[in-house]
Design goal:
The complex is a heterodimer of chains A (165) and B (573). With 165 residues, chain A is an alpha+beta fold. Chain A folds into 2 domains: 2-76, ACT domain (Alpha-Beta Plaits); 82-158, Alpha-Beta Plaits. Chain A has helices at residues 16-26, 55-66, 97-110, 130-143; strands at residues 2-11, 30-38, 44-53, 71-76, 82-93, 113-117, 122-128, 146-158. In chain A, the strands form 2 sheets. A 4-stranded antiparallel beta sheet of chain A has the order 2-3-1-4. In chain A, strands 6-7-5-8 form a 4-stranded antiparallel beta sheet, with helices on one face. The radius of gyration of chain A is 19 Å and the shape is elongated. The two termini of chain A are 22 Å apart. The model of chain A has no long low-confidence stretch (mean pLDDT 95). Chain B has 3 domains: 2-170, Rossmann fold, CATH 3.40.50; 190-350, TPP-binding domain (Rossmann fold, 3-Layer(aba) Sandwich), CATH 3.40.50; 363-464 and 506-550, Thiamin diphosphate (ThDP)-binding fold, Pyr/PP domains (Rossmann fold). Chain B has 23 helices and 20 strands. The model of chain B has no long low-confidence stretch (mean pLDDT 96). Helix content of chain B is 36%, strand content 17%. In chain B, the strands form 4 sheets. In chain B, strands 3-2-4-5-7-6 form a 6-stranded parallel beta sheet, sandwiched between helices. With 573 residues, chain B is α/β, with parallel strands linked by helices. The chains are: A alpha+beta (165), B alpha/beta (573). The A-B interface holds A 10-11, 14-15, 18-19, 22-23, 26, 56, 59-60, 63-64, 66-73 and B 118-119, 122-123, 126-127, 129-130, 132, 147, 179-182, 303-305, 307-309, 312. The complex binds thiamine diphosphate (TPP) and magnesium ion. Thiamine diphosphate is lined by residues 382-386, 409-412, 435-438, 461, 463, 465-469 of chain B.
Chain lengths: 165, 573
């Protein structure tokens, strides 16, 4: 079992998201994340999907997706140079002034924005890899009383210059 | 010129060559129904239940090779078709099912008889869509027929809101479709095919496994040619029955859970398994680790997703069965398979398919009499022991067609499917082999049989039990016959272990049932009466005949492989 990535072009129509996600639940595929948005062509949406699976299941997943009428194209991103980022908002709550200082330091180290600040709270806006976002959450949780996060799931696009990752 | 949606609906059906539709009315389809009233090119068949309606459309589609068309109302009309959609999905039957829907403005309001039928059936249709804009109606119907009948066929659902039916819009029906996400496979990868052929050529114990795909692709002739040119033995799946004539010298029989002994042993012993049009479901493979353990496997299928899904194959080939076989026939050269064929013959003699003949009338006798009586015909079955016996003892091929619910195993399928087949092929005798349990699931259709003039022959195997389940209870559950005796009443002892003199009478009385509808009824208790009953039924052209065969409750379907165990481990007695 390992995480694998798929980019999926689908018809931008009612029910397509339900159909794609229903495939994963109906066939017990292990869906890790799924994001969707329209593309430069507004009749087409692009999904970025992460699944945890073995090789055989992954092949099957791609075939099952391909067979859907609403699916225009399936791209296996597993071994492709990619740009991949996930948006994450993390609120650190009930902090003292010293703790706020620490949040700023962390923000600097992780190279993320401070998007908002109040009397006893700081809001971080992060555009990192999923893994880096995970690390940030672990760190914030261990250092502060209460945090609140929302994350968008990763979006990915193939690199232009193949060396990039 | 602009026309209403309901007018375009009828125009579209005509352009698609539809001559028969199976419809049941209701508030949300009265507009299109009214339009059907005004024309007389399309026949509307009115069943007595929407579940039966869709099975009738399936039987019609299978028997004619055309797309079966259904029209039902919203809500309960739509939900009643769900079982049939799933059945058609698993057995790859081309259907277009129109469901009425509440007006667009009411969708989402929990309006009267509103259900999200597209959402409910997403995983059991090839494609499903609600028409949300009148201008898309023609395009959607065109797409639906195209998707239903091409590639691996299947059911398509079109949800038709009431206001779409009445709104005016473009009157043209498109004559082409282009769906960017749907491109069924058309060619054959010659390189892969060559590889497969070489493997078969080099094999010592080669075996062909033919599935339903051979029949769907109408490749029977090509398969037979290939088999004869190469001299390779063949086994079939249940859905593949008839892919090669039963009496063909290279045909061994069905493989799988209730397959022929020699067929299953051959699968276990072969060194190349050349399979065409099967999805290797669990009824065929048994324990996957022990399936064809010595074989290199070739798999030809039109559906990419069917390949290397259940069994890992050595040579995958995505292709239409007919195209692939045509190509193979260009290369095919005879192999020396004498020893291997002889070995298979020995296995078959060791454990032939046979029922004891010393205990009165057996299913085998009935099925053999059917083989003898009918040449060109369509035979449908319901689901249960009688179905398995039918797959074992009936002989198909040529003009004899077999229609059975293989993937979903839907009780209640057989009788309506027979009616649909008869409506599509009135020129052929249509025989339905059914059980006393399953027949009762759709026997209201006797009315349809009479009103639609579909004089089918119903061979009802009455063993007074839900026999297939009873068999498992008898073999694996200490004869605890919970919920399988159809004579049981509240007055019966709690822990019944089988039949006795004190049992309450069976009901219903199927002879009186037939009479109530103006159908014929013949009850057969002895072997000597079988042939005459079939002849008599065949002579009845005015109404269906129910032949009730009174068979023993104890008869088992053998051989049998218990789910999840290897195919070579058959229970033989
Ligand atoms: C709709 C449905 N419900 C339940 C089953 C499970 N089932 C499979 S065979 C069977 C018994 C069928 O009895 P009958 O029609 O009398 O046929 P027999 O096995 O006795 O020949 C049952 C209950 C099923 N296949 N389909
Ligand atoms: Mg029975």
């Amino acid at each position: 079992m390992k995480n694998r990535w798929i980019a999926l072009y689908v018809e931008n129509q009612v029910g397509v998201l339900a159909k794609v996600s229903g495939l994963f639940s109906g066939k017990s595929y292990n869906l890790q994340s799924l994001t969707v948005g329209t593309t430069e062509d507004e009749t087409v949406s692009r999904m970025t999907i992460c699944v945890a699976s073995d090789d055989i299941t992954f092949e099957q997943i791609k075939k099952q997706l391909n067979r859907m009428v609403e699916v225009i194209k399936v791209i296996d991103l597993t071994n492709v140079p990619l740009h991949m980022k996930e948006i994450l908002f993390a609120k650190v709550l009930h902090c003292s002034t010293a703790e706020k200082e620490e949040v700023f330091q962390i923000a600097q180290v992780f190279d993320v924005q401070v998007a908002d600040i109040g009397k006893d709270g700081v809001l971080l806006e992060c555009k990192l890899t999923e893994r880096r976002n995970n690390e940030l959450i672990v760190l914030l949780k261990s250092r502060f009383k209460q945090i609140e996060v929302v994350r968008g799931g990763a979006v990915a696009i193939e690199s232009i210059s193949t060396s990039c990752r | 010129m602009d026309i209403t949606g309901r007018k375009l609906f009828v125009r579209a059906l005509l352009e698609e060559g539809v001559d028969t539709i199976f419809g049941y009315p209701g508030g949300m389809v009265t507009d299109v129904m009214d339009e059907l009233y005004k024309q007389d090119e399309i026949r509307l068949v009115l069943p007595r239940h929407e579940q039966a309606l869709i099975h009738e459309a399936e039987g019609y589609a299978k028997a004619t090779g055309k797309v079966g068309v259904c029209l039902v109302t919203s809500g309960p009309g739509a939900t009643n078709t769900i079982t049939g959609l799933a059945d058609a999905h698993y057995d790859n039957i081309p259907l277009v099912c129109f469901t009425g829907q509440v007006p667009l403005s009411l969708i989402g309001n929990d309006a009267f008889q509103e259900v999200d039928i597209v959402g409910m059936t997403r995983s059991i249709t090839k494609y499903g869509v609600t028409v949300r804009d009148r201008k898309d109606l023609g395009k959607i119907i065109k797409m639906a027929f195209h998707i239903a009948r091409t590639g691996k066929p299947g059911p398509v659902l079109i949800d038709l809101p009431k206001d779409i039916q009445t709104q005016s819009g473009d009157g043209r029906y498109p004559d082409t479709v282009n769906i960017r996400g749907y491109k069924p496979n058309e060619g054959v990868h010659v390189g892969q095919l060559k590889k497969a052929y070489k493997l078969l050529k080099a094999a010592h114990r080669p075996l062909i496994l033919a599935g339903g795909g051979v029949l769907l692709g109408r490749a029977q002739k090509e398969l037979q040619e290939f088999v004869e040119k190469m001299k390779v033995p063949v086994v079939t799946t249940i859905m593949g029955k008839g892919a090669i004539p039963a009496k063909h010298p290279y045909y061994i029989g069905n493989s799988g859970m209730h397959g022929r002994y020699a067929a299953n042993i051959a699968v276990s012993e072969c060194d190349v398994l050349f399979s065409i049009g099967t999805r290797f479901n669990d009824r065929i493979t048994g324990d996957l680790n022990e399936f064809a353990p010595n074989a290199k496997i070739v798999h030809i299928d039109i559906d990419t997703a069917a390949i290397s899904r259940n069994v890992v194959v050595d040579v995958p080939i995505v292709a239409d069965a007919k195209l692939a076989l045509e190509k193979l026939n260009e290369w095919a050269e005879p192999k020396n398979t004498k020893g291997w064929l002889e070995q298979i013959r020995v296995w078959d003699q060791e454990n032939p398919l046979e029922m004891r003949r010393d205990r009165g009338m057996t299913p085998q006798m009935i099925l053999e009499a059917i083989n003898a009586e009918f040449d060109a015909c369509v035979i449908t079955t319901d689901v249960g022991q009688h179905q398995m016996w039918a797959t074992q003892y009936l002989e198909f091929g040529g003009e004899k067609q077999f229609i059975t619910s293989g993937g979903l195993g839907t009780m209640g399928f057989g009788f309506p499917a027979a009616l649909g087949a008869k409506i599509g092929r009135p020129d052929l005798p249509v025989i339905c082999i059914t059980g006393d349990g399953g027949f009762q699931m759709n026997m209201q259709e006797m009315a349809t049989a009479i009103t639609e003039d579909a004089p089918v022959i119903i061979c009802l195997f009455n063993n007074q039990y839900l026999g297939m389940v009873r068999q498992m209870q008898q073999l694996f559950y200490g004869k605890r016959y919970e919920a399988t005796c159809l004579r049981r009443r509240r007055t019966c002892p709690a822990n019944c272990k089988g039949k006795s003199e004190a049992c309450p009478p069976y009901l219903p009385d199927f002879m009186q049932f037939a009479k109530a509808y103006g159908a014929h009824g013949i009850r057969v208790e002895r072997e000597e009466e079988i042939a005459a009953a079939l002849k008599e039924a065949r002579a009845h052209a005015d109404a269906p005949t129910v032949i009730e065969f009174m068979i023993s409750s104890d008869e088992l379907v053998l051989p049998m492989v218990q789910g999840g165990t290897p195919m070579s481990k058959m229970i033989l007695k």
